[in-house]
Amino acid sequence: DLVNASRVFLDGNVFQRSVSMSGGPISVSLVKFVNLDPICVEPKTPLAHAIDMFTKLGLSQVLVTHRGKLRGVITRKDILRFIDNIHNEQKREQGFAFRVFT
Q1: Phi-psi region of 68 (alpha: psi -120 to 50; beta: other; left: phi over 0)
Q2: First to last CA, the chain
Q3: How far is CA 84 from CA 5, 47, 55, in A?
Q4: 25 touches 14 (CB < 8 A)
Q5: Which of 6, 2, 28, 26 is nearest to 15 (CA)?
Q6: Whole-model pTM?
Q7: Which of 11, 16, 78, 80 has the most beta carbons within 10 angstroms of its beta carbon?
């Protein structure tokens, strides 16, 4: 299957030369690291729905796909950074409004 056939080839310079006796690229199986049933969303998925998925399912990432092709990855950090930016923007707007009206 695709996962078992998937390999990552790393240049021998990444590891010490003793790791690869042949001196060629090192093949590493990803089967232990691959999620065989990833959570996917479409690009037009509402942000509130994505946030809800991260919260309720405890996800660390969600794949963004369109017509079966990977278009991107949203991570928990991306969501937290986005929420933090909105919060900071609201604080700036409130501070600005406060200065204007007092």
Answers
A1: left
A2: 67
A3: 40, 14, 15
A4: no
A5: 26
A6: 0.59
A7: 78
Q: What's the pLDDT at 87? A: 84
pLDDT tens string 50-87: 999 999 999 999 999 999 899 999 999 998 898 888 88
Q: What is the largest CA-CA distance in the chain?
A: 74
Residue 28's nearest CA partner among 1, 44, 6, 50 is: 6
The Cα 24–Cα 46 span in angstroms is 46
**Which residue is listed with tokens 């909105």?**
86
Quick one: angle between helices 47-57 and 76-101, nearest 10? 120
* 8-59 tens-digit pLDDT: 555 545 444 334 455 566 677 777 777 778 899 999 999 899 999 999 999 9
Is residue 41 within 8 Å of 64, Cβ to Cβ?
Answer: yes
Are 63 and 49 within 8 A, CB to CB?
no
Residue 5 is given by DSSP the state H
